[in-house]
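RETRY 2/3 - previous attempt timed out on the joint model. Re-submitting the same 210-residue input unchanged.
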Amino acid sequence: MSASYDLVYDPNDVGADMVVECWISQSPHARDADFDPQPGDWIRAGDDEEPPLRGRVTRRDGDRVWIQLQLPRATDAVA
Amino acid sequence: MPEPFLLRGSHAAATLIAARMGSQTLADTSLTNQCARTFLRWGLHGFSVFEVPDGDWQLLARLRPIITDRRYVLTVEAATLLRAGFPLLPTEDHPHWTVVLSEPTPEQFARVRPLFDGPFENPAWTGRRSG
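RETRY 2/3 succeeded.
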């Protein structure tokens, strides 16, 4: 799994509010005891198909982390 | 303890087109992981798809902005899933649906995977490149 992001997300799980539930155990930091995302933290989420997205942790419950993804602005696009 | 889920008062019309984002999201690993999350949450094995309302991809993009960031999609007609024995439940808010599997096994994944067409380029993709 790529190390260019912290959490794996499934785009089909992303809500209208851009919030998605991720599991640390399904992500690159699954065996990293120091990885401890907390509400308010900015992290990167990806799935190896598209470039990772920034997201802010909104909730944490053990292995489960909810993040609100931020879509890049149109001006960030590279032609 | 799984949480209760409500089903919208929607019926999967035979002509309903459902989309699943990503070219690899029907792979065994992806389906295994999503089924695990669905089972923990609702007590059933399943994975998410989105209805393309009246075939309008731009409307889907307004309802689910994440789709604008996804280059490839897979699609399936509701009738195809239902005929093959995979229930399609109207979960969460429109246009979200859950395809239900009897068990999260490679055998079941291999049954449902070929029912989907694609991957093909998403009509609602806004064309972000890696950066």
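DSSP finds four helices and six strands in chain B. Closing ticket.
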